[in-house]
């Protein structure tokens, strides 16, 4: 699929919104790491648009906390402090736990089947040891849970915060054995949701997301190994 955004066929604001979504996906997927420069001219050339909608898209991303505007550097992918990362993961744990709780109460049989299928894909990928492939399958798994909450506001809040910490969240998967542990935790979440047990779904999911105990030390080790920017 081409990156081009049709400048003549769409209003400028629509183009800016499209660009925002495309750049946000690059950040969330890890293609753009924290600290990466976002040059207006390069983005305009890549997406085949003028610099005006690029500038508007970057302003939107800055308002959402995904991009920083730095003097003499311009726009860069936001770099979080360790304290901010930990605080955001605390909130993520509660938001995702609520999503899972609501899934146990509201998910349709068709949605449960999609969740089970996504869980099985995660398992197949984890057997191959492919961190990047597992991360993408893991995002799909969690997206199904956000949607299955049947609470659009909660879904949007959870996904927005997930995108802000995604580059750091994916680091956890690099630690030896983490993918298999993640898949086992997914299995417990799926079982609780399908069993219609909201309390178990909430508690298991919160433990799955939270950075605490051994998970915290593993996370710090992954940060050092990756040398990922931390403010």
TrEMBL record:
HTH gntR-type domain span: 13-80
Pfam name, any one: GntR
Listed SMART domains: FCD, HTH_GNTR
PROSITE patterns: HTH_GNTR (PS50949)
Recorded GO MF terms: DNA binding; DNA-binding transcription factor activity
Keyword terms, alphabetized: DNA-binding, Transcription, Transcription regulation
Chain spans, region Disordered: 1-20
Matches recorded under PANTHER family: TRANSCRIPTIONAL REGULATOR, GNTR FAMILY (PTHR43537), TRANSCRIPTIONAL REGULATORY PROTEIN (PTHR43537:SF49)
Name used for this protein in its record: GntR family transcriptional regulator
